[in-house]
Amino acid sequence: MLTLHKFLDAIESDIAKGGSSSYSPHLQNFIFNFLTRSLVGADPAIDPELAKSAPSTLNTWLALQVLPVMPLLIFQPLEEVFLHSYAYPFAFIKRDYQKLYNFIEQHGGEVVRRGAEEFGLPLPEAIHNLIFVLGFNAIGGFSVFFPSLLNTVATDKTGLQARLREEVRKLSDPSTSLSFDSVKDMELVNSVVYEALRFNPPVTLQYARARKDFELTSHDSVFDVKKGELLCGYQPLAMKDDNIFDEPESFKPDRFVGKGKELLSYLFWSNGPQTGSPSESNKQCAGKDYVTRSASLILANVFQRYDSISGGAGKITAVGKAK
């Protein structure tokens, strides 16, 4: 977790110099390095120029894809006419995207080979799929979600930080680095991550066309959907259903602890239940497990290293080192 410690070191350095840290740039550099190692099996440090420019490249590439469906709350119908009526040309990002493609082709050998041998993908398609998972599913969603999670924890006044600190230190050895396996039993840490995703899903809207005629049922109604009709899902509404969640407008850190884990089948932030698995037959986020596991791992590391953190609105203003 060397890259995570560099991320936290950068936050501490900013606070020491200016009294606060607007940590988003540090976060994106960290998450790109961490997930490139995890997903691609290659260290971006091999190519320092790419390591520096790739987060910006992926941000631009991601923006060009989501802008046609993102509500910007500007004057209508101008938004629909000029921003939501066509796809943006790949030429805007082609050169920088090609650099990332070349890096994965050269250094992601084992993972790329698995795409070909296990899934029958042509080499270019395997690489494009890796970039999509890395840039859209993982880094894109994580960059939106993690500041929301950290802001929620940093501004909490209910004693949540003390409880997180207690759980992390009870279930970990301070002399060793945390891993995905070491945080899987941290129920409160994982529940806080899930509740943050329920409360503020990183992607609020999803669209799809019906593949066949079917009936869509709710608690008290049935809707006839015809093949080819356009469907829109609004995640914040789905996950604040008071028929499912007690006090849905309140952030409850323990909501998914113990028997509360049964509610994970209603946690749809990834365009499918948290208990589900992405596949070629559904539209569930391919990076959903990377997002949740990485968030839990980072949150646990924060409270292994610090007794407390303070901040809000995308900034960390103070950290209390572990005693």
TrEMBL record:
<dbReference type="GO" id="GO:0016125">
    <property type="term" value="P:sterol metabolic process"/>
</dbReference>
<dbReference type="GO" id="GO:0004497">
    <property type="term" value="F:monooxygenase activity"/>
</dbReference>
<protein>
    <recommendedName>
        <fullName>Allene oxide synthase</fullName>
    </recommendedName>
</protein>
<dbReference type="InterPro" id="IPR036396">
    <property type="entry name" value="Cyt_P450_sf"/>
</dbReference>
<dbReference type="GO" id="GO:0005506">
    <property type="term" value="F:iron ion binding"/>
</dbReference>
<comment type="similarity">
    <text>Belongs to the cytochrome P450 family.</text>
</comment>
<feature type="binding site" description="axial binding residue">
    <location>
        <position position="285"/>
    </location>
    <ligand>
        <name>heme</name>
    </ligand>
</feature>
<keyword id="KW-0349">Heme</keyword>
<keyword id="KW-0479">Metal-binding</keyword>
<dbReference type="InterPro" id="IPR001128">
    <property type="entry name" value="Cyt_P450"/>
</dbReference>
<dbReference type="Pfam" id="PF00067">
    <property type="entry name" value="p450"/>
</dbReference>
<dbReference type="InterPro" id="IPR002403">
    <property type="entry name" value="Cyt_P450_E_grp-IV"/>
</dbReference>
<keyword id="KW-0408">Iron</keyword>
<dbReference type="GO" id="GO:0020037">
    <property type="term" value="F:heme binding"/>
</dbReference>
<dbReference type="GO" id="GO:0016705">
    <property type="term" value="F:oxidoreductase activity, acting on paired donors, with incorporation or reduction of molecular oxygen"/>
</dbReference>
